[in-house]
Amino acid sequence: MKLLSMCSHQNIVAYKDSFLCGFKNAFCIVMEYCEGLQRWKRTAVGGNLADRIDKYREKGTYIPEETVCKWFADIASGLRYMHDLGIVHRDIKPANILADRNNVMKIGDFGITEKMIKTYLSHGGCTEVYASPEILDGSGKANESGDIWSLGCVLYEICAQKVGIVSHLLVAGLP
User: 40: exposed, middle or buried (C-beta count within 10 Å: 0-12, 13-18, 19+)?
Assistant: First the structure.
């Protein structure tokens, strides 16, 4: 929790509190509230980036270039902040990017982040289609470059409204 509590940036979902609850002492984390996509109305009032991409795909339209640039800048800004603190996220993907009511993108889901100095990513520790080649083949240490690779995969998905073919080939083990 110390890791989360030290993050204070407009493009990072803010940590509020943590506590044990329930009969099994479940660990609960209270984070900043980002309004959810209202699926029954299909309106974009918050939600996550995956929902936003789906909404445009369902309408059969591409996301406007200005919007793509704004979203990308938001995510890159949050990622740079984390990297400046020595934090590697290790699971950057559209479902882990939340949007607030003002269309500001925020990096969330810090379930597998660790300080860079003590981290090696095991094969199962990330979403494979967004993982860098060195992580998938087990030859690399989890570091900033893996997050940047994932950010590139996210940018491709925002623009093309589909997961990149390179990621699919890497997961399948094809050349």
Answer: exposed
Active site residues: 91
Name the residue among 49, 78, 64 with its Cα closest to residue 157: 49
Tens digits of pLDDT across the chain (175 residues): 666 777 899 999 988 888 888 878 887 778 887 775 554 455 555 689 998 999 899 999 999 999 999 999 999 999 999 999 988 888 899 999 999 888 899 998 876 554 433 333 443 445 677 877 777 777 767 788 889 999 999 999 999 999 876 655 555 555 5
Global pTM reads 0.79
Q: Which domains does the chain have, with CATH numbers?
A: 34-172 (1.10.510.10)
